[in-house]
Amino acid sequence: MEAYQAASQGTVVAREIGAGRTKPGTVNAAIVAYYNSEAWAMLKLGTQRARRNVLTLLRQEHGDKRIAKLTARPLVAVLSKRKPFAARNWLKTIRGLCQFAVAAGLLAEDPTRDIKMKAPRSTGFHSWDETQIEQFEKRHEVGSKARLALGLLLYTAQRRGDIIRLGRQHVRDGALSVTQEKTGTEITIPVHKDLLALIAAAPSGHLNFLITEKGKPFTAAGFGNWFADRCNEAGLPKGCRAHGLRKAACRRLAESGASAPEIAAISGHLSIREVQRYIAAADRKMMAVSGMEKMQRAFAPSETVNSRSQTDGAGLQIEGKKR
């Protein structure tokens, strides 16, 4: 368009042929080659999307630099500008790129090899408690798309990227069969009777249980934003989001006495250690209840003490008001 405008005004503009192309040996060229490699093709689609976002920013900031001159020092400077969780994601992505570049002969050695970052302390996404689940259910009645979304998240323990793909075609012999997008794990989950009722009460008329207002399937991000709005309508705290229901589902399973392998068979977790946390928390809760009941039985006060404590308690409250 610049050349056209210049020509229409009788001006000749000298343009270098191929100036806009990727120059060999640059970070740009390495990333393009990475996208076309088997190493990239082997990544899960969700991982590809996340890494592409990072690599796009890396190209914008450092794409014209020589990949062969890449060292740890400038990489550490790049990572230091990011927040802890983002920095870890950047490091994983750049490490994948560098490992490919070494294999392809673009780098002599991996500059990320000795870069280590501590995992930031965090409990992760907020796990919904029963009061918050009940609050959402009161705001969104059975038959609504929001209530169906809650049920799918709560009774399958799946990620939002898998929830949006679920439909009647996945139900066979009373069970949901799906291959998880992130891990490629194939799972079969018996359909909870309450979930069956929710599905029957909110038919979509589409292959997917959940569709947008325009009658199209949700994207993972689009569903997350839409569900966040439904949580806000229910007056829930900011932390109550879709992924927290996956954790709530695992909590419920643990509190129901399910073992770590049983929970993992439903949720699709690859690490039993991660699932074990829910069981440990459930065990502590049940042991605390059991321990307090034992103490009450062993040191039960007499009727006289009970009667007197009730009277004294009322007197303390009145005295407190006078003050």
Number of domains: 3
CATH class placement of the largest domain:
Mainly Alpha
Order of helices and strands: HHHHHHHHHEEEHHHHHH
Which topology of the largest domain does CATH recognise?
hpI Integrase, Chain A
Low-confidence parts: 316-323
CATH architecture classification name of the largest domain: Orthogonal Bundle
Give the termini separation. 82 Å
- How does the helix and strand content classify structurally? mainly alpha
User: What fraction of residues sit in β-strands?
Assistant: under 5%
Number of extended strands = 3
SS summary, helix count: 15
Helix content range of the residues, please? Answer: 55-70%
Per CATH, the superfamily of the largest domain is Intergrase catalytic core
- Tell me the Rg in angstroms: 28 Å
Shape estimate: globular
List the strand order in the largest sheet.
1-2-3
Q: Largest sheet at a glance?
A: 3 strands, antiparallel
* Mean of pLDDT: 85
